[in-house]
Design a protein that fits this description.
Elements lengths: L3 E8 L4 H14 L3 E7 L8 E9 L12 E6 L12 E10 L6 H4 L9 H6 L3 E5 L1 H8 L5 H10 L7 H11 L4 H23 L1
Parallel strand pairs: 1-4, 4-5, 5-6
Antiparallel strand pairs: 1-3, 2-3
Helix pairs in contact: 1-6, 4-5, 4-7, 5-7, 6-7
Length: about 200
């Protein structure tokens, strides 16, 4: 199989690293070699955070070459724009509609970009997901990252949704309410994409 390359982009506090670890562990559970790289120096300040996950029969580097990523998961509406040049021509782009304006926007020194959906759509199949609202429906806004994982699972052919759910259970082991909440968020994300594809 060809190495699968995934980029997850967001800002600090959105659960970017947790999501990448769930994918990585599920890939290991599925029998693949896995490499992950994370950048989270600004996570506590709400700065940009990203992860690169690669898995396959044999993976030599966690770094994704430009033009090679098959999937982009943007946990914040704008953050994925930084990584469009890394996408392959057949890339799937999943974008949360949650907006966390950068500092300069929040103090009025810059404006939030417009026509973002059009930009994403020029680089691959883009699906826009109200992840925060769907997570609240599941029981907590903090589960928005798991909603996005559920959405991604609809396209990952080499990792089963069951293996992803097993890793969610393992991550929250001993906390039954959190397990239930996150599994619900995962299924809500999957169902949203299924309905989008049917429509």
């Amino acid at each position: 199989m060809k190495t699968v390359s995934i980029i997850i982009a967001g800002v600090g506090g959105q659960g970017n690293i947790a999501a990448s670890k769930i994918i990585g562990e599920a890939a290991v559970r599925s029998g693949y070699d896995v490499k992950i790289t994370e950048t989270h120096g600004m996570a506590q300040r709400g700065g940009s955070v990203h992860s690169m996950i690669r898995f396959g029969k044999e993976v030599y580097s966690p770094l994704i070459p430009k033009g090679d990523a098959g999937y982009l998961v943007s946990l914040e509406y704008l953050e994925g724009l930084r990584w469009l040049s890394y996408l392959s021509e057949e890339a799937i782009i999943l974008v949360s509609t949650e907006k966390r304006p950068p500092y300069l926007v929040s103090i009025g020194k810059a404006s939030y970009p417009e026509n973002t959906e059009e930009v994403y759509s020029q680089f691959g199949k883009a699906i826009f997901i109200p992840a925060r609202e769907l997570a609240i429906e599941a029981g907590s806004a903090k589960a928005a990252n798991v909603v996005m994982l559920g959405a991604l699972s609809c396209f990952l052919k080499d990792i089963s949704s069951e293996n992803l759910k097993e890793e969610i259970k393992r991550r929250f082991a001993g906390k039954d309410k959190l397990v239930e909440l996150n599994l619900k968020a995962f299924e809500i994300g999957r169902n949203f994409v299924r309905k989008d594809q049917e429509g």
